[in-house]
Each structure stands twice: as structure tokens, then as C-alpha cells.
Amino acid sequence: MTTGQSLRIAVDIGGTFTDICILDEKTRELRVVKTPSTPDPIDGVLKGVKDAGIDLADVALFSHGTTVATNALITRRLPPAAMVCTAGFRDVIEIRRANKEDLWDVYKDVAPPYIRRRDRLTVPERIDADGNVVTPLDEAAVREVARVLRARKIQAVAVCFINAFVNPSHEQRARQILEEELPGVAVSTSSDVLPEIFEHERFSTTVVNAILRPVAGDYIGRLSDRLKEGGLKSDLLLLHSGGGVMTAATAKDYAGRLAGSGIAAGAIASRHIAMLCGYRNSIGVDMGGTSADVSLVWDGVSRVTKDWHIQFGYPIRFPSIEVLTIGAGGGSLAWIDSAGALHNGPQSAGANPGPCCYGNGNTVPTNTDANVTLGRLGTELAGGEIHLDKQLAVTSVATGVAEPLKLATNEAAKAILSVANANMADAVRLISISRGYDPRDFALVAFGGAGALHGVALAKELSIPTVIVPPNPGVTSALGCLLVDIRHDLAQSYLVPAAKADAADIEARFAELEAEARDRLARDGVPEDGMTLTRSIDMMYQGQWRSLSVPVPSPIGAIEDAVAAFHGLHEREYNFRRDEAPVGLYRLNLVAVGTTPKADLAEHALDGSLPEPQSRRPVDFDETAEPVDTPVYWRPDLPAGVDVPGPAIIDQLDSTTVVPPGVTAHVDKWLNLILKIQEA
Q: H-helix or E-strand containing 652?
């Protein structure tokens, strides 16, 4: 057992498995543990820690990506919550933008607001667009609202006043009164959560933050207590959507940032691994048991968006690493519609009952069943913890797809996987080609429990020349939690034409943001020399409302330089520029980073000798008409520098890599598999 607090632990909880990544700072040895997820996620975390033989007293850093907030929003298992609004504005979050996800489906409605109308109460107050008080806040009305909310046993309140982004005084006073009258109730104000113009986005984000505070607070509190009972002395850090971590104390106040926690970790790890391998442009595909998450990195930088949501119509405007999620995972169900067309997902067998080959009662074929039928996947998962019944897989594919479509069983299995790959390829095109990026300029990082099974087929579909499979693809998202810093994203609306912008005024506003950022990082325990502050300004052509974020120096420098940079960025993003058109400034942004120790992965000497396969089995590849006798290698036996010619199957604890005929897998010095596709 290692002592002296030299271990760093990262935990990522998925719908099917809980992944735990353990890095020893002294030896740089990386170990992984994979255990089935549990109804209470904390039980799965502690079971994984126990199975790994970890003494929590030896842990220097415990980082966690969680789907608790995301799942709470999806399932609507939320605490009683209320909204306090300016009189006349209680319906902003219900009116939304008056649009629909599917404009042509007249029967499909947008989900109802997270807070029902009877719990959206109003008080007299009004501030104009310049920040001037038009109608003073009626404090007696706020106290009356508090009386009503107390009677309704409300646990969370979102205070959303019109134009509070430019003058927060009324919201701040309302919050003081509510906290006096409702002790223990979580109160969030829009001017604190998101001080920006556009009331629907501001109100919606504040509501999400408010309703998640009791959810996150309960989860974080219980997890912290049980970890401390087990001997943990260091802070619990939680990954947020922007690609950084927060302390438990900060996460309780800004719980809305956890809504994208789980999916951000994989994107971070994907970028890190691609950069290690020498690829500054990469596309990450994290294919797990239920879904596939697609992310993009250009020139070493992950795409970040403020235009995202968990449910359509209710935007969350915290910065988030852009990840496109589709229902394509190992447990995705294959089904035939009334017209006889084959579909794949988004429905999933989940962890229980799981794919048919799990033997838990499911009879609808899944991607896992198709891979088992073709021999690409063996009959054991998670190091033998889960046994797969091949006959059940073959039967489900035969009865569910082959017979209705009059196909041979193996042809049906290939068809199931072909549809799954096409769905993922469409997602990659949306995040790359539709944004002006050519997939041929990227490497594909395939990870997640099922990613390495589909990586080469997906790359061929998109003409991507290189596939990278990390050393532990099934727990790569957990590794991402060890590669991030404490991060806060601050912003302030600044609606001024560039021609009239005053550099001194902008500098003063950035100074205010930086003072708040340093205060937040100091509360997180970050020393002054560990703080990094990065500025940017959102700009747009006047008359438009979509903006681009332009990095700017500190001090600000000439506004003309920022405008010139905006024109260049606009041309790269949208393939045109209008140098003669006036440019408007929209928002000032500040990213505050507090440096934390990073995972330093061990390098291995290049050996190059190919070991004997641990076994052989017949495998049916897309490139072959019949199953071929294929060597099966145990990945921990493959040394750095070795080349594994296809056809081959590479098994390991948390995943299986398919190396088709004509493709060679090279093991680099960090033990990544690099697969080169000649035809691409």
C-alpha cells in the first residue's frame, strides 16, 4: 500500500459503469477499476474505491465528474422550487423564444418549465435598461412572498428581475429578505448567476442553478461525509461543464454548472491524449453503454459554447465544452419501424436488464449483441465480472432483425452496427463539417467502453486517417478529471459599438471582474501565484445577435486590433468577412484558472516484440465475407513500440479494440494504440 498522500483519484459515473482512475504520483503508475453503477451513485463510488484497495488517507486529490445534476433535470426529480419576478414578467420562461425543437411536428410540445406557474410569484419593482430605478422594490411584497413560499415548503428560490444585469441592487435586497425569512432555503439571483442581457436565457439559467442547489448540495454533502469517514483528508473537487473543477463549497452555490459535468471529462481527456500523440486537431468519440458523446479540438483548443440545454427550450448559459450527445451506445436497441426500416437507438437497454447476452431478460438486440454475434466482442466484460451468453446474443439478432428483414444472422448483425456507425458519423459531421472543419484534418480518439469496437469503421465512414485508442478507453473520462484546474468563468454585458468603445472603460470593467475572480480563487485555496486570468470580448457585426469570442490582452490595448482579430475569426468560422461593416461589442469575459497538480503519465521504453496471442476466435469483419480465424491479444501484454497487424482483436479490462484486415495498430510510448487507415 502506498503511503504519504501520493494517490490521485478520479471518478466518472456513467449510466452503466462507474469508472475509477488511480494515479500514483511517485511511480506514475495508472490503475483503473470498473464497477457497475448503482441506484445511489455514491455506493458505486465507494465500492470501486474498496475494490481498488485504496486507503483514502493516502489520497492527495479526489476529483469527480457527476451526472447527478443532469439526471435530475432529465427525470424532473427536483425539489419544490419557486421564482420571484418583476411584476408582469412571471411567464418569461414559459413564453421562451416561442420556438420548437421540431417545427413541423404539431403534436410534439416543448416540456413544461422547471417551475410551474403557481410558484412563479411577482413583486413591484422596475429598473430601466440604463440601470435607473423607475419603481423602488416593494420590500413588504417580498416578505409576503416569503410567507407564501414558507407555507408551500419551498426549498429553492430563483430571483429574476428585469434589467438586473445592469443594476443588481433590487435583486440583492430581495435575496437578503428571503434569506432572513426563509433560513436554509437556497436563493439564487440572476445578477449573480448570469449578469447578461436577454432575460429568457438569464432567467432560465438562474432557475436551473436554483433547483439544482438542493440536489447537488445533498449529493455533495453525503459523498463528502462518507469519504471523510473513510479517511479522506483532501478536498473533494467536482468537474463542471466548462472543463474545470470546483470545490464542494463553490459547487453548492453554482450547482447549474454541474449540469454538463459528466460529459466534459471525456472531452478533456480526449484532447490531452491527442496532444500527447502529436495531433493538435482531434475529434473525440466517447461511446459508452447508453450514449455517444462527440467533441472537437482545433489547434489544441476545445470548442466552448454558451448555447446548450438539457431539455429544449430551457437554455443554460454557463460556458460548456461543446459536446454533441446521441443515443448510440453498447446498449442501444436495434428495432424495425412500421415501414420495415432498421433503426438503432436512442432507446437503450441500460445497465439492467442490459443487452440480451447479459441474460437478465432483455430480448431486443443491441449493439453489444451484434458485436458478440460477429465475434468482435468476447464473452467476458470488466475482467470477468460480467459474463456474456453468445447464444442469447445470436438468438436476439436472428429473431429481432434477421428474420423480419430476411437476412442471414451475421448480415443482420453487420446491419445493426452499420446503422449505429452512420448515426455517430452524422453527429461528427454536425460538429465538424457544418462548422467549417474537414474531418480529414483530424485524428479520431475512440474511447468509452464501446468506442474502440467502432473506431476504425467510423473513421472509414468519415475518411479520417488516424484512430487513437487510449490505454484505458473505458475509463478515459475518469482520467479527464485528473487533467483539469479549478476554473471560474465570469462575464459582464457591454453593449457598445466598437467605434465608440473606450479602452479605459473596458479596462476598468475587466479590473472589476478580475477582483471578483481572485476573491473566488482565494476562497478555493488557490495562492496568488497559482492564478491565471484570461480575457476575451464577444463581438458581432451590428444588426446580428450571434457573437464570436475574441481573445484580448491585459491591458486591453487598441480596440482596432480586437476588431481586426474578429474579422479574421469570423472568416475562419463562417467563410466570409465584412471589413467595412460596423462591429458591436456584446460581452466582456474572464476565465479565472487556479492551477492544480496534473496527471503525469509514465513513458515506456520502446520494445517492439509482438507476444503470442492469448487465444484465437472466428471474427466477422466488415471487410470479410465470412468469419476469419483471428488472434486475440491481451492489451497489458503489448509493449510500447510493437505493431499489431490486422486482423486482430485486442482485449483488456475495460474495452475491446477491433483491428480490421489492412489496418495496423502501433503501441506508442504512452501505450496508446495508433491505427492508421490507408484508404483514408
A: none
Alpha carbons 544 and 539: distance in angstroms, whole number: 10
205: CB partners within 8 A, 6+ apart:
190, 193, 194, 256, 315, 316, 317, 318
CB 236 within 8 A of CB 62: yes
Question: If DSSP states are collapsed to H, E and C, what string results for 450-472?
Answer: CHHHHHHHHHHHHCCCEEEECCC
Rounded Cα distance between 584 and 498, Å, is 5
Q: What is the pLDDT of residues 83-128, one digit of tens each?
A: 999 999 999 999 998 888 888 888 888 889 999 999 999 999 999 9
CA-CA distances (angstroms) from residue 464 to 453, 648, 679?
16, 20, 9
In the block, which residue shows the cell 471589413?
579
| C-alpha angle 384-11-63 in degrees, rounded to nearest 5 | 160
Which pTM was predicted?
Answer: 0.81
Confidence of residue 647 (pLDDT cuts 50, 70, 90): very high
Cell (9 digits) for 172: 440583492
Cβ-contact 417, 367 below 8 angstroms: yes
- DSSP letters, 604-645, are -----PPPPPSEEEEE--TT-SS-EEEEEEEGGGPPTT-EEE
Asked if residue 391 has pLDDT above 90, the reply is yes
**642-678 burial, b for 16+ CB within 10 Å, e for fewer?**
bebebbbbbbbbbbbbbbbeebebebbebbbbbbebe
pLDDT tens by residue, 330-368:
888 999 999 999 999 888 887 778 899 999 999 999 999
Using omega within 30 degrees of 0 as the cis cutoff, is the peptide bond preceding 214 cis? Answer: no
> Could you tell me the three cell numbers for 635?
492489451
Per 3-state DSSP, what percentage of the chain is helix, strand, and coil (rounded to 5)?
A: 35, 25, 35
* Alpha carbon separation from 141 to 80, 355, 433 (Å, rounded): 21, 56, 53
Q: Determine the angle formed by the axes of helices 390-397 and 409-431, rounding to 10 degrees.
A: 80
Longest dimension (CA), the chain: 81
In single-letter form, the type of residue at position 75 comes to: T
* Residue 345 half-sphere exposure toward CB, CA atoms < 13 A: 27
DSSP-assigned letters across all residues of 21-60:
EEEETTT--EEEEEEE--SSHHHHHHHHHHHTT--GGGEE
- All three cell numbers of 385, joined, read 465480472
